[in-house]
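Researcher: I'm preparing a figure for a lab meeting and need a structural model of a single chain. I don't have an experimental structure, so a prediction will have to do for now. The sequence is pasted below. Please return the structure as tokens so I can convert it later.
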Amino acid sequence: MNNCEHLSDYDLSVLIRNGNHSAYTEIYNRYFYLMFIFAFKKLQDEELAKDFVQELFINLWTKRESLSETGKLSSYLYIIIRSRMLDYFAHQKVRNKYVDFLKSYQQTSDERTDHLIREKDLAKYIDEQIQTLPRKMRQVFELSKKDHLSNREIAQKLKISESNVSSQLANTLKILRTKFGSIISILIP
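Model: Understood. Here is the structure written out token by token.
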């Protein structure tokens, strides 16, 4: 086994391009800590920084044939790990936007669902209260508000006078106002 400690980066680059394991080990020993410190300062996560540096050295070995003999080894390593971190940050930014979108969608979806449930419950409660009205009053009200018939059409259908229809509707609204308050005018136009 060759002792590569005293070799220059250029010589190590030449040897590693030819598959020399000792040269690879020397590069690893020489640059691991420097690359780790660089990555850790940017990432602020020790485990992630270690992972990035390990990935850097794995890529160095697998792509050793494409390593330039004319370039500076330390610059090459810094550029590779910096590029990987930029990719990571870009991915995190996209991921965070997606997560934020999902959270806001979930929240608005929950709010809509809650609103629809409340609306359905209120409509059911109003219908229950309408069912408690006297029969003729309930018929007049339902023909007016649900079937959208005019007072004249209701009078003809039920064979009662228009004034009777008007008074029945007025009485119904009074009863409902006592049960629901002024909100009834919003709920039932």
